[in-house]
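Minutes, project check-in
Item: structure for the 174-residue chain
Input as provided by the requester:
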Amino acid sequence: MNTAAPPTAPPSPRAPLTATPVVRPARPEDAAALAALSRPFVHAGALRRRPLTLYAAHAADFLVAEGPDGTLEGCLALRVHAAHTEGSRGPAGVLYNFCVARHRQGSGLGGQLMRAVLARARARSLGSLFTATVGSGSLFLRHGFAPAGVRLAPEAWATSLDPSRNARVLMRTL
């Protein structure tokens, strides 16, 4: 995850955040809000561009953080892949499209989403998780991820990575 805010005008003074967003599974009707939440990160190069139809078709992959007014303030997706290498500990998961709205960055919302997706991965008996990041990956590293070779990742996902993005692959064993 790239926690740096996309380039925009200087931030306005932050209003106190009074309510904690609720983390819930996304629904197909969240597709437009997921795309809108992701757009600044796509423009900044932190996320890959994804069509609206992907957000709708793969809504079940996403956990979202919904603010008290119904606005999506963060999201993180988990895609499950079948056992991917000889000797792997069961199916693997890939985390993607991790973003937190600018006004919520630094509030702990990213950590809340990460803990929720880790619980979801354990409930699905995944052996490992992978992600690719063009940012520092500091949140992933704080949650037990470490740099890994792409050859350890699920092949279908690994071959879909865009080499021009120069993303680092991170892995966590569950």
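Outcome recorded: The two ends are 19 Å apart (CA to CA).
No further action items on this chain.
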